[in-house]
Amino acid sequence: MLGIGVLMGVAGTVAMDVWAVVLDRFAGVSRPNWGAVGRWVVEASRGRVFHESIGDVDEVPGEVRIGWAFHYLVGAIYGVVFVAIAGAGWLAAPTWGAVWIFSILTIGFGWFLLQPGLGLGWAASKTDDPWRARGLGLLAHTVFGLGMWGIALVV
User: Which domain holds residue 97?
Assistant: First the structure.
């Protein structure tokens, strides 16, 4: 079940990344800055989790790669956690509702850890349009759930 969880999390993350490309090309929504996330990961590993602005922190060698790796690692972890919670019964007959609720709940880590860590405030409160950012985040996590569910149906 561990392998299926990893596969589900990676598939959900890929779906989320494809969605980001679609939004960038057709709606003018900027893609996530994985370099900033990588910089935050390095800073967090040094004990500094929250920043006024991650842009004020010196760049870190390889920060883009670190950010992408972290993004996929978190996705894989979410997949494993979901499978551990949902169990073999869910895998035998995957339902959308369970994985969607889980995928929506995972946004809490972004809203209450990553975004304030980057200097964007709790739940994007320091951005120009917090409600738009929150809505886009919920939509992205829904797409993440669709990716997880889709691969569960195939597997």
Answer: 2-154
Burial of 90 (0-12, 13-18, 19+ CB in 10 A): middle
- Mean pLDDT score of the chain, rounded to an integer? 97
Q: What is the total count of domains within the chain?
A: 1
CA distance 4 to 1: 5
Q: With the C-alpha atoms ordered 54, 55, 58, 61, is the resulting torsion angle positive or negative? A: positive
- What are the angstrom distances between the C-alpha of 28 and each of 95, 120, 122, 129, 139? 33, 20, 24, 15, 16
pTM assigned to the model: 0.95
Centroid of chain to Cα 104: 10
Q: Are 81 and 105 in contact (CB under 8 A)?
A: no
Distance of CA 126 to the CA centre of its chain: 19
